[in-house]
Amino acid sequence: MTPGRRSSTFTRLLRHGFTDPSAAERLLESAGLGAVRDDPVLLDALGATADPDLALHGLVRLLEAQPDPTARRELLDTLTGSKPLRDRLLGVLGASAALADHLARYCGDWRALVTYEPRDLHPGVEEFERGLAGAADLVSLRVAYRRCLLSIAARDVCATIDVAETAAELADLATATLRRALALASAAAPDDAALCRLAVIAMGKCGGNELNYVSDVDVIFVGEAVEGADEGKALRAATRLASHMMRICSETTVEGSIWPVDANLRPEGRNGPLVRTLSSHLAYYQRWAKTWEFQALLKARPVAGDLELGGQYVAAVGPLVWQAAERENFVADVQKMRRRVVENIPVAEIERELKLGPGGLRDVEFAVQLLQLVHGRADAALRSGSTLEALRALAAGGYVGRADAAQLEDAYRFLRSMEHRIQLYRLRRTHLVPEGEADQRRLGRSLGLRTDPVAELNREWKRHAAVVRRLHEKLFYRPLLDAVAQLAPGEARLSPEAARERLVALGYGDPAAALRHLEALASGITRKAAIQRTLLPVLLGWFADSADPDAGLLNFRKVSDALGKTPWYLRLLRDEGAAAENLARVLSAGRLAPDLLMRAPEAVALLGEGDGGGLEPRPRVQLEQEILAAVGRAEGGEQAVAAARGVRRRELFRTAAADIVGSYGTEAQPAEADQGALVDLVGGAVSDLTAATLAGTLRAVVRDSWGDTLPTRFAVIAMGRFGGHELGYGSDADVLFVHEPQDGADEREAANAANRVVAEMRRLLQLPSADPPLLIDADLRPEGKSGPLVRTLKSYEAYYRRWSLVWESQALLRAEPVAGDEGLGRRFVELIDPLRYPERGLGDEAVREIRRLKARMESERLPRGADPKLHTKIGPGGLSDVEWTVQLLQLRHGWQVPGLRTTRTREALAAARDAGLISTVDAGILDEAWVLATRVRNAVMLVRGRAGDTFPSHARELAAVGRYLGYGPGHVGDMLDAYRRTARRARGVVESLFYQG
């Protein structure tokens, strides 16, 4: 051959798909293949495999393993003369290195692939039992098992059977294997076998006749004593038999293991007895079982041991399975289990996870099982353990759209085929798509993708996963729309009763009203109806994830009625996925945010990400600029303040929406883990908004009556939570008003002007309108309600010098100028600093007075009938406890610790910790309690639409508060226990620091 030129064999090998033609050429020239190396039929057959290099290497090993030349010649002659064997043998060798290893060790097993009788094309349990009948120990059982597995794999890779038939045959082989293992265990302990009846119930994929090549085989054991035997002794005997049977399958030998037998789906899991009687199983399921356990029982099937007892078990638990959908929080429990599975996937693997990741096999299986449990109670046709059979039955009954079901079946078949081929290569349990190019090439070719296997594989995989992601939610909700809309002739639809069942399962309290809303939203041929039909399946899922799905759907209808004809609204929901999900969360989280939105539905634009959108609260400077500009454009004080209140309403909605979305989380962004950050967000945003609104109102009042010049300088001093930047949604604005006559102004005229300003500000901010009122509370002023609403700076100075009480010094810790004359505000702060941060701190008598006041407040102010342990404001460990403790530290040490000179509770607490005035542990306990109590108050306002200091008594409102705080359905008790525990710990710190320190 001319140097530098490739041989014709090399070129042919390259053309036939070999990636290492040089190595393949050497293998073909070996002694074993010398007689057939130029046979074009052999090369074509090798080229048709998933991995021609792997197939050739396996073939050479098989030939070399033959015991003598006669056996080698028999193999070669059969290989070249029999196309069925050639395709099956080379197909297996090119797809499975593990089965190639088996053939090299047991070189005569290739004969199992030579001929097939018609019965061999679709063997069942009996045929596999015959194949395993000669196995007398663990090693021979493994060899016989792989011989049977070889025949399944051969039919699979040659497409004699499809993916569903492959999975069913693997389940039948597992059944035969369990029976043989139990027979071996019984033979080893005949006395135990004589004492008991033992049934093996297959669960999971084995129970559903859809097993993988390598998978745990899930089982449950049921045992009974034979007649006349002691039950206790019989159960112990059955447990020994079951344990031995599991070891026979699972133990590692020189031939490896078969697969693990997993009994953890039994009652109480691994903590429960391995074997129970039938009555014990029933007692557990009737009293203790969780929703997921009934979901698992969908696939229960007796496979080995006493089949009569196994049949009794399935018949007994069946009715319980089909009642599961009636359980409270049924859908939420199933969906929570699905989310937990996804959350436990390592981040580095989630993109390659074929089974458990988003758009994976488990999404299909969960969706189908959910629908089976909801509708299978009334329709026995849905009671199949097989995912694909159940999906087809759901489509036939109108529970799933036919087109959706067909797409989902195609995707499921493709993903299961990928899973089979990935596991077949090494016979290892994995659901991760390989990263290597060679592995992806072999995988793609095994699925018939030959032009560009790697690119085609990834394209098809992503396409099918996207279909599953899109449909697995739609599968549940779309038929609800079809039930109220016009369908094509012949298309099945949900019956009204089935639609009602599904809505009830989703948590809707009034399914009839929900169906009316769906009909109004989805019917018709308008662009609006078409877009809403597309959006609603997903929105319904988000509504169902809330504590009040009915309110979410009703509120969506109201918003849609108000904005449905505006092009930007439909475009926003259609094109910005975040906007639709944010809207669903906001509309179903309680009354406050929807009420704010309904007063001006165009604020829904804030939920998007485009221009003018975004939920990040705006800085105070920007808010003041906007409000002052609106006031400047208005004609008259009422119109000006109405404009300011309109901005306030919009921004309150923005803050509430940000709080809700941050608390619930979205598909793209998990819930905010730092609860303190959400409290600070709300407190800062609402306080800044209140300050800006007061500044605008003050400007409007002055301009309306005095033009640009008021005869007195005027300032608004924030107090309480307002001054601490800790306002909640329903908080009043605690303030002091201070004025100082302009040079040369008449003091009486100045005082009258100041009082008129205060009166008009309060009036305008409380005028009835579509916008929420802003109540101004000046009760913290000198002399309280008995004193004048507004004083001059000199009057404040005189009062504080002569009459000030210790509680007033404490109140002034929160004082901060927020509107009006900045110079006057600064002078007021200079006036009060010596009072709130007294030099050398408080005297003992003042400390005792503060403690007396606190004790009196606790005993006198708690509302009658309120549970003090759940009162967030003045209950033990509540806001008052934490704030008074922090404020006492400020009064005593603020003169020497600059960090304590702040109006903010959490900042002051952190400064006290840093200064060594409180331990890190105690500071953390107080901070946690304060944050939690504040979150509860915010939640109550969001849910009920009115302020409250205790948890709601209404069950649905209480559940909504729990959802906001991160507690799923059915965990309200956990929420209340957590609050009591947190408050109790905080009260212990308060007792030590406030009352004894």
Could you explain the architecture of this structure?
The chain starts with 7 loop residues before the first helix and ends with a helix. The protein has 43 helices and ten strands. The strands form two sheets. Strands 1, 2, 3, 4 and 5 form a five-stranded mixed beta sheet that branches. Strands 6, 7, 8, 9 and 10 form a five-stranded mixed beta sheet that branches. It has 997 residues and is mainly α. Helix 6 packs across helix 9, helix 27 packs across helix 28 and helix 29 crosses helix 31.
Draw up the topology in text.
Layout: H1 8-15, H2 21-28, H3 40-47, H4 52-65, H5 69-81, H6 83-95, H7 97-105, H8 125-132, H9 138-157, H10 163-188, H11 190-195, E1 196-202, H12 204-207, E2 217-225, H13 231-250, E3 261-262, E4 275-276, H14 278-287, H15 291-297, E5 301-305, H16 307-321, H17 330-343, H18 361-375, H19 387-396, H20 402-426, H21 437-446, H22 453-482, H23 496-505, H24 511-522, H25 527-544, H26 549-563, H27 567-575, H28 577-587, H29 592-598, H30 620-633, H31 637-664, H32 675-706, E6 712-718, H33 720-723, E7 733-741, H34 747-766, E8 776-777, E9 790-792, H35 793-802, H36 806-812, E10 816-820, H37 822-836, H38 844-860, H39 879-893, H40 905-914, H41 920-944, H42 955-964, H43 972-995
Parallel strand pairs: 2-3, 2-4, 7-8, 7-9
Antiparallel strand pairs: 1-2, 1-5, 6-7, 6-10
Helix pairs in contact: 1-2, 2-4, 4-6, 4-7, 5-6, 6-9, 8-10, 9-10, 10-13, 14-16, 17-18, 18-19, 18-22, 19-20, 20-22, 21-22, 22-25, 23-24, 24-26, 25-26, 25-28, 26-28, 27-28, 28-31, 29-31, 30-31, 30-32, 31-32, 32-34, 32-41, 36-37, 39-40, 39-43, 40-41, 41-42, 41-43
